[in-house]
Design a protein that fits this description.
The chain has 616 residues and is mainly alpha-helical. Helix 18 runs antiparallel to helix 19 and helix 19 packs antiparallel against helix 20. It is globular and about 90 Å long. It starts with 59 loop residues before the first helix and ends in a 19-residue tail after the last helix.
Length: 616
Amino acid sequence: MTTRLLPLALIALTAAPLPMPLGVAMAAPSLAQAETPDAPHSERPAHRPDEVAPDVRGLSGPYLAGRLAAIQNDFSTAARYYLQALAHDDSDAFLQDSALVALIAAGEMERATALAGTMSDQGRATELARLVQRAELAHAGRWDALIESIDTAPSPEDDAGTPGGGMLIDGMMRAWALLGAGKAGESLTAFKKLAELRGAAPMVNYHLALAKARVGDFEGAELLLADPATGAHILGIIARAQVLSQLERNKDALAMLEATPGLTEEPYLVALRDRMARGETLPFDSLRGPADGMAQVFLTFASVLATNDDPDPLALIHARLAEYLAPQLGEARLLAAQLLQDFGQFDLAEHEFEALRQLGDMRPVAELTRIDALARAERLPDAEKAALALTDAHPELAQGWIALGDMLRQQDKFSEAVPAYDKALNLIADGNAEARWFPLYARGIALERSGQFAKAEADFRAALAIRPDSAQVLNYLGYSLVDRNEKLDEALGLIQRAVELRPDDGYILDSLAWAYFRLNRYPEAVAPMERAVAAMASDSLVNDHMGDIYWMVGRKREAEIQWHRALSLKPETEEEAHRIRTKLERGLDAVLEEEKANGGKLPPPPEPEQEPAKVD
């Protein structure tokens, strides 16, 4: 599988612990953690404005509604209610900070900067409010004021009780502000001093390289960017290619790009390569000015914070500040979009993806992320359209065709999914077996569900040749053979191996029990089927199977209970529901006899007789 480029600043940050970045010890309440820090994100219901307390008059109603929305990561709604609460009482610093977090997370930076200014005027500026004000000063190019703001701010120890909490980010912002104020020598010296902090060198040296290139020291910038710990991420690679080109070293830049993993998945890198191959000298435009440098400071810390297993609101805040300062910075918008979809805010994420497209930055990695977000939001037709657009723009990208196949398959368009997987497999070299594994497995499913089992079986076996211990492929092939009453002994072996690999998987236990059922080994089927029901109590088909097995071992009353339960759980098709109802009416033995006499299918129920039309 192709290795993707690493995000900004994550290459060498594991060498030693960094001073704590801003926000880790901030007083501002994080939206996801304010009330229920242990609640898993997946268990939070989607928030709708009509679900909050109906009394939103006065202070308490909007505050409680805002807090509920904040817990559910509904940033826009939380911001709206918190601002309503502040209209009644603007003297509560906690409420102000809560509103500020929500506004930034929602991308409402104009209102966020206004609120931060109000908090400062009232003498209640928190660390977050001061950070927003610094971003606003950089946005306005007021570099001397920004330097003064940093130099006169309370120390991190005084403000948050955590020594060094803001040392690195404050220092990097100050170094960029010095460059903006025309003090290039002091700026470079400040960056070099920050690089001496334990574990900070890879991060700081990237910014030092940008600053050197900005003032024309391309040789110094190249020395820093050539270190993989400093420049082996997409922004660093772009900057280094431009620096090498400025040094009239296009040949070296081309070699560097060709050695970059995932080059063909990044159209911008391909474009740089092609321009230099034509003999063009690239301008150094990775940095338009010091504000872009500060934006990349925020992006750096957002990337670090985004490595947490759970989505971090502070990562989103830093990404939002980055895109506020540099709206054209695609990496910031992409990270914000990915974080928003992790929070379940798919509409806000879609806004960021649309901004990327407006910038002409329709990067495959961004589009693939967008397609996944739409699918997880159960907007499958939109996800299919996005996948079609991606394959149209980048027909050479195998992952785009795989995404299209997946979206079609998830909508039960199995016959249409097969050609998409065909194209993906045609683009992946035979020698790249690991990259071929998933599209082979997925195409096998699409073929099996579209009635082409011989081809499906070949794909499953090809996938198993690549990953012989893939429990999901072992189970799918084994169950398919069981369901067709073919090669039952082999099918049982495949499923038994899958159970060894995943002993608690309800679907695989169901397959094992059903294999025993097909082999007329009914007593052996009971235990795995009962374990499957325990794991998947709300699955209609599993309960139906349990009923059939109970019937065959003489536990007919329990069988009827399971069939009633299966029927109450709404079987996937009317055919399945009809079969369950017939078993309840006449028993499984009668159903099996009817199916045997009818070529393996239960006759459909008779059409209800229509009453003759009344004649007046």
